[in-house]
Design brief:
Strand order of the largest sheet: 1-2-3
Strand content: 15-25%
Helix content: 25-40%
Structural class: alpha+beta
Shape: elongated
Number of strands: 3
Radius of gyration: 18 Å
Largest sheet: 3 strands, mixed
C-alpha cells in the first residue's frame, strides 16, 4: 500500500530516479549499445515517507528524529 493512500511508512527507491535510469538505458540501447555490455546500476536515491495522519489515527507517536529525517511527511 502506498503511503499516500493511507499506508504508515515507506522506505525505498525513488521512482522518478528509477524511471530516469530506465530511460537512459533505453536510449543507449536504441543508439546501438548491446544490453549485455551495459553495466548494472543500482538506485542511489532512497526516500523515507511518513503518513503522520495515519500514525495519529492508529494512536502511534512518531519520534521527532524520524520526522526530521523523512524526505516527506504527509499531514
Amino acid at each position: 500500500m502506498r503511503v499516500e493512500a493511507g499506508g504508515l511508512i515507506s522506505y525505498g527507491t525513488n521512482f522518478v530516479d528509477a524511471y530516469r535510469q530506465a530511460g537512459a538505458y533505453t536510449g543507449r540501447i536504441l543508439k546501438g549499445a548491446k544490453p549485455a555490455d551495459l553495466p548494472v546500476v543500482q538506485s542511489s536515491k532512497f526516500e523515507l515517507v511518513i503518513n503522520h495522519q495515519t500514525a495519529r489515527i492508529l494512536g502511534l507517536t512518531v519520534p521527532q528524529s524520524l520526522l526530521v529525517a523523512a524526505d516527506e511527511v504527509i499531514e
